Amino acid sequence: VKILLAKGSPTGFVECTDCVNQTPVTCVYPDCLNKTIFWYKNFTYQDVGSWFFKFKLATTETSGYDTFTLTKDNVSVEYAAGNNSQASLSQAVNLSVRVYDMIAQTYNLDPSAKLIFELLHPNYLNGKKQIGVVYTNSTGYATVEFQPTCEYVAGQQNWHAYIASDDPAYNYNESENFTITLDLTGCEATPTVESY
């Protein structure tokens, strides 16, 4: 028995040469009729989409309209560093999360996950302000070094990180909200008086 696959539509089937038959050999044809058989195949994020499959035995094959959908992996975005932190015009702070692939059961993401870090405060446009886009390292950490400028809102606010919507391999998920306080001393407007 062979398995044939086609991505996207039930045309152009090719034999899955990297599918590994995982069925223990417990019978010989014709005693194998109505026996369950199964295969194992590693897919990558580049394979995400709809797939059609059919089985072929000698010259007989199934219709090819059986389908499965390969989706992005689910991940969790966990706190790593930077909660209750303080940053100022002269002092940066590292904000860090760690991403865990719940399907592959690893922090060693391949490919790396793309994360967006944001500040959350009602005085920002739409209540949020992006402060960085970073990718996870080989142990799943994503860290942004943040040093505010005068364009930010002073005082206590929240920050979080989330998987970017255009990440090709991982489904959207976000961290909890964490606290940061921004000291923007020196940003106040200073009037100048000129005499003529």
Biggest sheet, open or closed, and with what strands and sense?
5 strands, antiparallel
Overall pLDDT level: 92
The total count of helices amounts to 0
Strand percentage:
35-45%
What letter string, H or E per element, gives the SSE order? EEEEEEEEEEEEEEE
Alpha-carbon Rg, integer: 26 Å
- Overall geometric form: elongated
Helices and strands: which structural class?
mainly beta
Residue ranges: pLDDT <50 for 5 or more in a row?
none
Number of strands: 15
State the end-to-end distance: 96 Å
Q: Assign a percent range to the helix content.
A: under 10%
What would you say this structure looks like, in words?
This protein is 0% helix and 43% strand. A hairpin with a 2-residue loop joins strand 5 and strand 6 (60-61). Strands 1, 2, 5, 6 and 7 form a five-stranded antiparallel β-sheet that branches. Strands 9-15-14-11-12 form a five-stranded mixed β-sheet, with no helix packed on it. The protein has a three-stranded antiparallel β-sheet with strand order 8-10-13, with no helix packed on it. It has strands at residues 2-7, 14-15, 20-21, 39-40, 49-57, 60-61, 66-70, 75-81, 85-88, 93-101, 114-120, 128-135, 141-146, 155-163, 178-183. It is built from no helices and 15 strands. It is mainly beta and 196 residues long.
